[in-house]
Write a structure and sequence with these properties.
alpha+beta; SH3 type barrels; two-stranded antiparallel ribbon; FeoA_core_dom; FeoA domain
């Protein structure tokens, strides 16, 4: 008899929890006005696609890609941004059987 284990991954999560190289869409951001304005100038706003391409060591910043722009964001700020994994990216993440 073979035992299997299925792990479900949430489709909606914070940007800080988004797996590497997974495309997601920004749903909301609870940031202070100054930071929100700076990030909007970089292209980060609600309904925009985003991807985490690298994580800093020991809780360091995240390197993000929005369109053709790449920038760094502190994890504490990334925890305030809610994202939804895009359908084409989540088909391999919904269920993992080991």
């Amino acid at each position: 008899m073979k035992l299997t284990k299925t792990v479900l991954i949430a489709k909606t999560m914070t940007l800080a929890d988004l797996p590497l190289n997974t495309s997601a869409r920004i749903l909301s951001a609870q940031l202070d006005a100054d930071l929100c304005q700076r990030l909007a100038a970089l292209g980060l706003h609600v309904q925009r696609d985003i991807e985490v391409i690298r994580r800093g060591m020991l809780g360091g910043p995240l390197q993000l890609r929005v369109g053709s722009t790449e920038f760094m964001l502190r994890r504490k700020d990334a925890r305030q941004i809610l994202v939804d994994i895009l359908p084409q990216a989540d088909s391999s993440l919904i269920a993992v059987t080991a």
